Amino acid sequence: MADEDVAWYQRMLDAQEDQFDAPWCWTVVQPLTMPVTVAEVARRLGGDPASIEQVAGWAYDETDALHLQQVGPAVVMCQTGGWEGVRDEALRWLSDGASVHSSWWSPANGRSFVCYAAFGRILTRLEHLDDDQPAGERPTALDEDRASLRDDLDYPSQLAFVERRTGIRLDPAWLDQPHATVVISTPIPDDPQPPGTFPRTDPDLAALFLLADESTQRDALRWVLDSVAEEHDLRGEPAVRAVLEALPRDWPAGEDLSAQLSALRFQLTQEVNASPGGSPERWRLYYRMRAVEAFGATVPNSRGGWYSPDTLWYAQQALQSQQRWPSIRAQLWQRVRPPRRSDPPPVVTAGR
Within 10 A of 13 (CB to CB), how many other CB atoms are there? Predict the structure, then answer.
């Protein structure tokens, strides 16, 4: 049945290909202890219910625009470009007296999130359906329902998963007809968040890494990237060798190096997209693409964008294929933690 659902969504996306070029966020809000309406969902997310309009088409250039529809007692919401439905802050408000399932997908880089919240609490957050380190208060709450879909990382499987959990299907007819649209004028403020991705998924290791001196940081990244290169047979790539050779002395830099890694990542992304869904070859290419992204995150790009801890996030993804990350993480933790002192610190007594 799951395969039939995934195939149904694949056909729908293929028929509406131009509408799914941008990142999509699909959210289903179902009432538990209080009614849920289009106006109420708009209000909870910082929109003015009085400004809701019936609009045909999609606001691709307005990432703050929400497209809403009442489906029986539930409300479905779609956002193009934005990701309001998978923000923790928004999920808490949306799930007050309600159950919320939400999926976000970016076709440009294959990034995704699947979230489940209820009664104002984030119960489960997945990076993708095969996520082995889910977050949330009940990280395993979705395990049974996602078990048969874990081998497919594409968006149709996520839409099929949300339907399985909610019983509500994304209706292709709704994509072509006028629907309630509201622009968020006063969005819910973000919780304090660290920059980048890795500190959000592993704040302990990220904190130790950032407290370490620069030489320790570079040595740690050189060590983990050497494992990544070995795992995915990347030592023959000139840009990979350049990063590994530079890190013991300095941060790798240069527009040429950044461009080479970007081109290699683009090539692998195309190979992933062209490979059969769920096949061993697709997984091999996917993890290899993440490996290249780990090297790319270590090199400043032409716009100066760079955040070295995110190298660890991509390395974690790249090393999941052989379940090596727990061991690697334990060794990284030892490498970046402050050195222990052999003698205990002196005792300071008040008044002396």
Answer: 19
Q: Which of 151, 165, 69, 47 is nearest to 115 (CA)?
A: 165
What is the DSSP pairing of strand 112-118 with strand 98-105? antiparallel
Shared domain for 179 and 210, answered yes or no, is no
pLDDT in tens, 14-43: 887 766 777 889 999 999 999 999 999 999
Whether 189 is in a domain gets the answer no
pTM: 0.68
Quote the pLDDT of residue 171: 83
pLDDT (tens digit, 9 = 90+) per residue, 265-278? 999 999 988 888 77
d(CA 348, CA 352): 8
Distance between start and end Cα atoms, the chain: 75
Do the Cβ atoms of 14 and 152 come closer than 8 Å? no
- CB–CB of 96/90 below 8 Å? no
